[in-house]
Amino acid sequence: MLTQRLANIAFTVLVIIACGYFAVVAQGFEAAGLLASSGLPSRFFPQLLLGFTALCATVVLYVYATKGEAGDEGQTVFASSAEARRGLLALAAAVVSYIAWQNFGYIVMAATSGPLLCLAMGVRNPVVYGVVLALAAGVYLVFTQLLGTQF
Amino acid sequence: MFDVAAVGVAFANLLDPFTMIMLVAGILLGLVIGILPGLGPPIAIALALPFTFYMEAVPSLILLLAIYNAAIYGGSISAIAVGIPGTGAAIATVMDGHAMYKQGRGGEALGLSLTGSIIGGLVSVVCLTFIAPVLAQVAIKFGPREFLAISIFGLVVVVRVAGANLFKGLLVGGLGIFLTTWGLDELNGAERYTFGTYHLYEGIPLVPFLVGIFAVSEVLIGAEKALTRIEFDKTSLTVKIPGLRTLSKLKGNLARSSLLGTIIGIIPGEGAAVGAFFAYSEEKRRSKEPEKFGTGIPEGIVAPETANNATVGGALVPTLTLGVPGSPAAAVLLGAFLIQGLAPGPTLFDERPDIMYSLFLGLFFINILLLFIGLFAIRFAAMLIKVPMTVIVPTVLLLSFTGIYAVSNSLFNVGVLLAAGVLGYVVRKLGYSIAPLSIGFVLGPILENSLRQSITIADGSTAEFFNTPIGLGIYAALALTILWAPISTWMRSRGAGKAEDP
After folding, report:
1. Which residues in chain A are closer than 8 Å to B50, comparing Cβ atoms?
2. Which residue of B has its CA nearest to A28?
3. Measured between alpha carbons, how far is B65 from B49 in angstroms, rounded to an integer?
4. B96/B202 Cα distance (integer angstroms)
5. Contact A136 B170 (CB under 8 A)
6. pLDDT digits over B274-332, tens only?
7. Which of A4, A98, A149 sits opposite B406 (nearest CB)?
8. Using alpha carbons only, how large is chain A's radius of gyration in Å?
9. How far apart are CA B184 and CA B186, in angstroms?
10. Which of A56, A75, B156, B246 could staple B170 via S-S, CB 3.0–4.6 A?
11. Is B238 exposed, middle or buried (0-12, 13-18, 19+ CB in 10 A)?
12. Is B401–A38 a contact, with Cβ atoms under 8 angstroms apart?
């Protein structure tokens, strides 16, 4: 299983790289017209924060790389492979639902997101699928009929 | 001190039938969501936010405050009945509450938690009513340097209480603030991280970000444990309100926990959960029989339950007077104010005192009604504990998607919700707290504007930058907060060393 140590090392390295990228992007910020000379440059605050965040990430990286833990010794990111599968499949189902909404509209998303998430969670009971679909219909009716939302 | 005309208008606002319906609906909804494990007050408020878009300010804010209050109390029901806290605020209640339930005294435990919650809530409302207007009067004189000091104080305190590792908290806090720099620079119009899309001109929207961080990340975590079955015995679910003799025995505990909860609520931080733990350990420390804590004694339920509800009024003090949220739930509540076109801060007391007093009176009514609704609804509401996560997870995700779209009519905002949810999920899985991330995101604009203005005012002079007595007082309080734990540990170890010396 993925350990907290390995996951945190990878995360902090990504954060440091991202901070570097965004700091470079900030160099190109240009103020508009007459306001250009007013006060501190626009890049000041983002770059200050990126430096601070990168520093914190470096400390966390150092702690995990040298001590091997930061109050979470021996812990893994997921308790079991089944939990990891359910969590990651649920994440994928949420993303697929969003893409379905973009391409096929709200009703398709509302009708498929529930069953997709149930599949991701490994639900076998058809009653759960029925209840989830009924609740989705309820949500649709509340928003369209009661609140007047147009999808 | 009080604007009598505004108080009159506030009464009229509250007695409006629609507002009363929202008040009752909020309590019921808060109870339901609080009971469901994992769905705490921030998620409850976040899910209800889209509905408030269609309402006037007073009924919408009353609805959310009722949800906030009732959700904190609702968490104790599942903590007592099944030993699974419905909210983080109820974790301390599990120890004695569930032990009492297993002894067949569930009704007594539920009665104690309900009574403690009501008393804690009422005391904090009284404190809020008297402290908030005074603080607003002081805060109206605050300039950028004072707001900078308050924002730094709020953020550092949140980071300190949010997790075991200080740098992990600072990292996500910094990330939260950084994300607020996206969009047009308010001071000079520069485009920052807009990536060529007009959607980002106004920056990352607050409400979708907060709903994503809290609700969507919780949905994904809930999906992992979706197949865990919850079994519980419903035989001792009839609430037994404690008698006067019991209350008299617990009066010191009730008073201390109410005040502790209110004070901890005022200090920006984790709010209810920290308040509950603090009160529990304080009562255990004062007790002549500390070994009995955890075995199912009334003191162990009353302390955390009184304190966690007392944090509600406390958390609203900085939220309403300074625009600095006292807890993650208050941060989401801040979004509700913005939806209504209201900017919480000292000027709101001058501009809309009627709304402020409506909220104070509303909180008072909410606590009173929670007693009656709690008495009758607990038995039925507790059945919700059995609703499986496999039903909750898809429904909450669909509600979040639909609600955010309904508020803005923008699929881009739904994308922000999803992205924030994924970010929240990743950082939670890696052992980071999302409290600094969310509070950082709320405080970011205040922090940037006040820092840039302070530097401009100081004109390169460090002495001028710190030439603010109030600000220095806040920095001193911050230093004391950070140094208090190591100093007290050092003093204790010195004392123990002297005692051991012959």
Report:
1. 147
2. B192
3. 11
4. 49
5. no
6. 788 888 888 888 888 888 888 888 899 999 999 988 988 888 888 888 888 877 788 88
7. A149
8. 23
9. 6
10. A56
11. middle
12. no
Using a 10 angstrom Cβ sphere, with 0-12 exposed, 13-18 middle and 19 or more buried, the burial of residue A105 is: exposed
- Distance from the Cα of B179 to chain A's closest Cα (Å) equals 9
Radius of gyration of chain B from its Cα atoms, rounded to whole angstroms: 22
Q: What is the pLDDT of residues B276-290, one digit of tens each?
A: 888 888 888 888 888
- B111 neighbors B239 (Cβ within 8 angstroms): yes
Q: pLDDT band at B231, cuts 50/70/90?
A: low
Interface touch B405/A151, C-beta < 8 Å: yes
Q: Give the angle B265-B266-B270 at the CA atoms, nearest 5°.
A: 45
Residue B117 confidence (pLDDT):
92
ipTM > 0.90 for the complex: yes
Q: Quickly count: other Cβ atoms within 10 Å of residue B355's Cβ.
A: 22
Using the Cβ of B391 and the Cβ atoms of chain A, whether some distance falls under 8 Å is answered with yes
- pLDDT the model gives residue B86: 66
- What gap in Å lies between CA B366 and CA B26, rounded to an integer? 9
Neighbouring CB atoms inside 10 A of A112's CB total: 18
Q: How far apart are the CA of A45 and the nearest CA of chain B, in angstroms? A: 7
What is the full DSSP assignment across B377-445?
HHHHHGGGGGS-HHHHHHHHHHHHHHHHHHHH--HHHHHHHHHHHHHHHHHHHTT--HHHHHHHHHHHH
Percent of chain B residues topping a pLDDT of 90: 22
Which chain A residues have a beta carbon less than 8 Å from that of B399?
139
> Is the predicted pLDDT of residue B164 greater than 80, yes or no?
no
Cβ distance of A87 and B187 shorter than 8 Å: no
CA-CA distance, A135 to A141, in Å (whole number)? Answer: 10
User: How many angstroms separate the Cα of B488 from the Cα of each of A58, A136, B255, B261?
Assistant: 30, 55, 25, 22
Contact of B13 with B358, CB cutoff 8 Å: yes
Q: Is the dihedral of CA B82, B83, B87, B89 positive or negative?
A: positive
Integer Cα distance of A52 and B448 in angstroms = 14
Q: Say if CB B393 and CB A90 are below 8 A apart.
A: yes
Of the two residues B148 and B81, the one the predictor is more confident about is: B148
Could you tell me which residues are beta bridge partners of residue A76?
A3
Between B496 and B199, residue with greater pLDDT: B199
- What are B12-17's contacts with CB under 8 Å, separation 24+? B13/B58, B13/B354, B13/B358, B14/B58, B14/B62, B14/B358, B14/B361, B14/B362, B14/B365, B16/B58, B16/B59
Judge whether B186 is closer than 8 Å to chain A, CB to CB: no
Ranges of chain A whose pLDDT falls below 50? none
Residue B192: beta bridge partners? B183
Q: What is the pLDDT of residues B2-51, one digit of tens each?
A: 678 888 888 888 889 999 999 999 999 888 888 887 677 888 888 888 78
The pLDDT assigned to B366 comes to 94
DSSP string, B309-355: HHHHHHHHHHHHHHS--SSHHHHHHHHHHHHTT---SHHHHHH-HHH
Minimal C-alpha gap between B425 and chain A (Å)? 9
Do the chains contact at B401 and A109, CB–CB below 8 Å?
yes
- Residue B362: closest CA among B60, B54, B35: B60
Chain B closest CA to A134's CA: distance in Å?
10
